[in-house]
């Protein structure tokens, strides 16, 4: 496989342009360096060792994960300073304890006193402490204690005062930047989240509590506001691949997208003015639905084509207008799909084929599960 062109691959195949991955990673590092904030990259988009090495510049330190499967996978391969940034699931306390007792620094996150109670009931061996981040909701509207609720400060205090537990930081994820269009809107949300987080830190300070602070998402960290430099850390992840969604938000250009799905024409259907391709929703995610004039993806180099619908292993492609010129798309010919959502699309592939300028370099194998 190595040295062959990507066109030699069986399809559908997820291909990763390693030069773009390295460029995206380098730009984010430089941006954070300039701001003076620690970058703690999230691994959820790719879940591979190779990409983690690129994102951490080989240090194998200071990462965020969304599942314990990722945490164990990275721990098994010598990574440390891992933050499991998912509100502590009570069925997984023992697995978190094992990682905390094994690594120099394994960190958990919570947003409920019941989770804190579970940690107190499971003291770590030796003189180890649980390292706990408080998840704060600054307008994202998903997990986290609401920044304005008195209970959020009380929970922070309870964590700070609990035996065997240390309040390591406050973590606010600004996923609401995904509703933005353009840099100005992104920066408005980034500024709001930063302000609310820093105000919360001031309130903690008034109680004599000091700890780290972190916000981040790919849109906000692609166009950070200056005040983000007052935070301790940022935690974006998708930026290493980017996708059509990010280009529509304004985080990147379409040329920055490092992952594509190769598919082949497997049928001509002139009675419907359509082509069939061998990529269905098992090969590219459905979440572009209704968001793009070109259907579920952008078909590279063919702005006139639309990925209209998919079943598990089939995709229907039609022209955006006029009759289809079938001579341009012979059976067996390749089309390249740029995914709307790279995290969801990568999740579907057991291996990623890595190339530089279309020449295959090898495979990356992601970890899976929870
Ligand atoms: C808790 C948390 N932190 C960090 C991230 C990374 O953000 P992004 O995917 O925008 O890079 C995510 C993404 O969903 C997240 O859920």
TrEMBL record:
Superkingdom field: Eukaryota
Record's keyword terms, sorted: Lyase
Gene3D superfamilies, per the entry: Alanine racemase, D-serine dehydratase-like domain
InterPro entries linked: Ala_racemase_N, D-amino_acid_metab_enzyme, D-ser_dehydrat-like_dom, D-ser_dehydrat-like_sf, PLP-binding_barrel
Domain D-serine dehydratase-like, first and last residues per copy: 258-356
SMART domains with a match to the protein in the record: D-ser_dehydrat
Family of the protein in this entry: Belongs to the DSD1 family.
PANTHER family cross-referenced by the UniProt entry: D-SERINE DEHYDRATASE (PTHR28004:SF2), ZGC:162816-RELATED (PTHR28004)
Protein name in UniProt: D-serine dehydratase-like domain-containing protein
